[in-house]
Write the structure tokens for this entry.
Amino acid sequence: MHAQIVLFDGFDPLDVVAPYEVLHAGAIAAGGALSVELVSAEGPREVASGSGGLSLRATAALDPARAGLIVVPGASGRVADPDEAPDHEVGAEVGQEDPPVQVRLGHTLATGLPALLNAAMGNPEVTVAAVCGGSLVLAMSGLLEGRYTTTHYLGLDLLDATGAHAVNARVVDDGDLVSGAGVTSGLDLGLYLLERELGPLVAHAVEQLFAHERRGTVWRNAGLVPAGF
């Protein structure tokens, strides 16, 4: 199995590094049954995050035809007031020194990323995973209508407004779409993906190695409907 973790300008480093570290450790624990790489829509390049000038290098172009996992991070930055910047506007704010996170997410719409993600979500051999605002990248690209997903709690209303079913849970499994909530949920998302794809023994070994206990129940649209809640 191969995992492609997407970089775009303004990405949140922890959204990328947390699942990368977990999946990479899982690859070692599973004897090479999994490989992980950083990719971008444009191909190999240095990609600047939204955190203090930190950059990571994408080593390949995102390939939606390649079976496996694609992990989409969110962006980092300050959260704008609702009347400061339109959620989907991608023009005048490009040159801002400190654009709000909503604008950084919106900038992805003007790249080749939405088309590649659309192709990936149409590939039955690909599971798309999103960390934090990564769900908003997918939603703003028109790819999550009717799907169950989660994001940072500050973005749940925006997620709902795009036609997705926003769930206030740590990790949400909607089949070929798996999402994590706030930035540190990338650890929990990565461990859940290891358990789902490679088994609980590998996931438990990595969980012990990282001294991190997963939080919350993984939400699925299955089972009895709770009454009185």
Summary: Residues 85-95 have pLDDT under 50 and may be disordered. The longest helix spans residues 13-29. The CA atoms of residues 73 and 134 lie 4 Å apart. The chain has seven helices and twelve strands.
